[in-house]
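Deliverable D2.4 — example input (structure tokens):
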């Protein structure tokens, strides 16, 4: 069986459907309202499973023993989760013959929790990756079966890294399944709890830019919170959201103020507590996203 809910799980389920490991059923969270009318719509995993003719189960919780009855009737050999969003209680973890695996977007034990991709960028990590782990009752605490590492590109946003890791995760999962079936799967390695770091749920307020901070820190915020919730702040008194930016160590200025005299009429550069931030793409409230050049065409008072 496979359990997942958001887009991160789509490549993994697609890979299963297209392989010899086609799941007998899919678990996903209940439908949620979308759009102005809050009309219930199937999530990406539910839609993919339905299109493939796979049975879909959507319990609101798996904690009540009776809620897992449908799972028990299917007698699964293995349950694989990828961004499912619901904790699996002990009685569910024990159901499959081979237990439950989880595909997690970090090199565990670093960045256990809900926002591993964002936290890796915020921390300035040079590397991240995927962990295929044997689940236990804790939050991303189970022993690790397989891992795959990748470098984080200097300008890579959370959205771009998310998509890369989702594709990598599908390959890692298939590798694990092939090794399980052939009897070559290595023994799971316990995590070193002393090295664990936590990746909490993100709040919109986390994306606020404090211009007294160093430019490098603010550039990481911009990358880490793109595409959600998107970094925001005031520049020269103008509230805006910032989608693309880069730290400039060769320039400085008053925090939150436009840096003048840098010799270019197509650049937006804002002073920070240390260095300056060059902004490539931004958005005013209720307006379209604009490149720095288009913004300056629309705001001639910002031309320096």
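Example output (designed residues):
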């Amino acid at each position: 069986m496979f359990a997942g809910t958001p887009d991160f799980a789509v490549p993994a389920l697609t890979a299963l459907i297209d392989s010899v490991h086609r799941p007998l059923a899919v678990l996903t969270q209940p439908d949620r309202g979308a759009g102005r009318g809050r009309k219930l719509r199937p999530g990406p995993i539910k839609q993919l499973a339905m299109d493939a003719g796979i049975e879909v189960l959507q319990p609101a919780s798996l904690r009540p023993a009776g809620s897992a009855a449908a799972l028990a009737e299917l007698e699964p050999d293995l349950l694989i989760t990828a961004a499912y969003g619901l904790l699996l209680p002990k009685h569910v973890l024990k159901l499959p013959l081979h237990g439950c695996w989880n595909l997690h977007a970090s090199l565990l034990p670093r960045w256990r929790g809900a926002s591993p991709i964002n936290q890796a960028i915020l921390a300035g990590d040079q590397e991240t990756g995927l962990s295929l782990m044997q689940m236990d009752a804790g939050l991303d605490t189970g022993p690790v079966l397989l891992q795959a590492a990748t470098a984080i590109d200097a300008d890579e946003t959370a959205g771009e890294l998310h998509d890369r890791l989702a594709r990598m995760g599908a390959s890692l999962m298939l590798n694990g399944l092939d090794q399980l079936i052939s009897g070559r799967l290595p023994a799971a390695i316990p995590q070193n709890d002393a090295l664990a770091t936590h990746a909490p749920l993100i709040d919109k307020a986390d994306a606020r830019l404090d211009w007294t901070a160093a430019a490098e820190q603010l550039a990481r915020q911009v990358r880490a919170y793109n595409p959600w919730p998107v970094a925001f702040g005031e520049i020269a008194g103008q509230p805006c959201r910032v989608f693309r930016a880069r730290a400039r160590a060769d320039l400085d200025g008053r925090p939150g103020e436009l840096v003048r005299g840098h010799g270019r009429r197509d650049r937006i550069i804002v002073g920070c507590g240390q260095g300056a931030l060059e902004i490539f793409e931004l958005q005013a409230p209720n307006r379209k996203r604009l490149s720095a050049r288009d913004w300056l065409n629309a705001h001639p008072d910002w031309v320096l």
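DSSP finds eight helices and 16 strands in the chain.
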